Amino acid sequence: MLRPPALAPLFEARRLMDSVGWAAVLPQMLASLGALFAVAGVGKVVADLTGRYIPLDHAFVAVATYTVGMAVFTMVMGNAFAAFPVMTAGIGLPIIVARFGGNPEIMAAIGMLSGFCGTLMTPMAANFNIVPVALLELPDQYAVIKAQIPTALPLLLANTLLMYFLVFRF
Length: 170
Hints:
It is a single chain. This protein is mostly helical. It is about 75% helix and about 0% strand. It contains 9 helices and no strands. The chain has helices spanning about 10-20, 25-40, 40-55, 60-75, 80-100, 105-120, 125-130, 130-135, 145-165. The longest helix has 25 residues, at about 145-165. The mean pLDDT is about 85.
């Protein structure tokens, strides 16, 4: 008697998708854009620019460049799935894995977590940071981002340290 009807989840899912709208497909679109950038050679350009301005002769510098680069590129692109192929092709695989012998699985996992730190700090991640503001009708359009930055920055530092201590040891 108190149970919802069997079709209630379908109706609620449709209502939610109608509320979210276009932002529901944004992660898939940005992942496709990241793959397109990787095929176009943007990773090589990132590697060349990074090599010019940052001395990647030490493993910690390479790891920090990769994790912070993932966060920053995610902030620009709006999604870590878009930044991942570019940063991994440009810095992760050639520097961390090939030059320093890092474990690619650990690098990829912690690299994605670093990218998600960037997702927490940008309005470009509309599906995470702008849509909730609209749905909750918050007066400050950046309220969600402001609340997440104190978590994102220490988490990015922790990811950098974790990668440095784990990627070369396992």
